[in-house]
Amino acid sequence: MQIVFATNNINKIKEIQALLPADIQLISLNSIGCHEDIPETADTIEGNAILKANYVTQKYGYDCFADDTGLEVEALNGEPGVYSARYAGEQKNANDNMDLLLSKLQNENNRNAQFKTVIALNLNGMQHLFTGIAQGTITKEKSGNQGFGYDPIFQPEGYDKTFAEIPLEEKGRISHRGKATQKLISFLQKTK
Length: 192
Hints:
This protein is an alpha/beta fold and 192 residues long. The protein contains five helices and seven strands; from the N terminus they run E-H-E-H-E-E-H-E-E-E-H-H. Strands 1, 2, 3, 4, 5, 6 and 7 form a seven-stranded mixed β-sheet that branches. Helix 1 crosses helix 4 (168-174) and helix 4 (168-174) packs across helix 5 (176-191). The mean pLDDT is 93.
């Protein structure tokens, strides 16, 4: 089975392809001739995943799935949330985003946070949503060089390492994206 993954983020493609069984192959947006930035104008994580999946299905005619992820920090009333990628500005720079978040939490004792991923799947004229959540805390400084985004400052519950210090395979089992992807895989395997 081949399915379009509506993202241009090479890290996300690598992370999700590593979780998929060998009989499910991802097709990139580049491969279908989609080179534009798909607008993410919804005010929820779910809404952005749906927007991206619908964009590819309507404009290119492919069954596909799209994800959107947000980091939700308890002490900041859920910030950065849907604005996680562009928290520190439209340049979408991970270091700038982490620096801004760490500065906002500088004098904060409550560092509880969660990563939330929603995958929207458009398949055979139907839409299905799969959600994955990883609970954890925001560290006081960056640590680790694996992963991407906020991984160097997010320490998942039950671990003394950040996502950026955990091997990709292990992160895939416990992460928000991994959990949502497992639900997607189970669903796809039932529909084959």
